[in-house]
Amino acid sequence: MDNEAFLDQFAAIEKKVERLIEISKSLQAENLELHHKIKQLEEELHLKNVSEKRHAEEKASIRSRIDNLLAKLEGVTRS
């Protein structure tokens, strides 16, 4: 293999390595963005779960109060 062919191959390898470094940096940046998005979505999910739990508790409390009022009304109408 002559010297010029060797240098051409070396230059091609350098270009490929530089391209791989660019791809790696791009993927690292995208990965960081995705981690931030996951964290944001997990926080939103947590807040929605808390809200849903509170709503279910309020609903159960209202249902209980209605049942108590209905029981009182039945007691009054039977008397």
Descriptive account of the structure:
The protein is built from 1 helix and no strands. The chain is rod-shaped, with a radius of gyration of 34 Å. With 79 residues, it is an all-alpha fold. The N and C termini lie far apart (112 Å).
Question: Topology, please?
Answer:
Layout: H1 3-78
Portion in beta strands: under 5%
Query: What is the 3D form?
Result: rod-shaped
Q: How helix-rich are the residues, as a percent range?
A: over 70%
Q: What is the mean pLDDT?
A: 95
Please trace the helix and strand order, writing H or E for each element. H
What does the largest sheet look like?
none
Report the count of strand segments.
0
Radius of gyration: 34 Å
Task: Summarize this structure briefly.
This protein has 79 residues and is mainly alpha-helical. Helix content is 96%, strand content 0%. It is built from 1 helix and no strands.
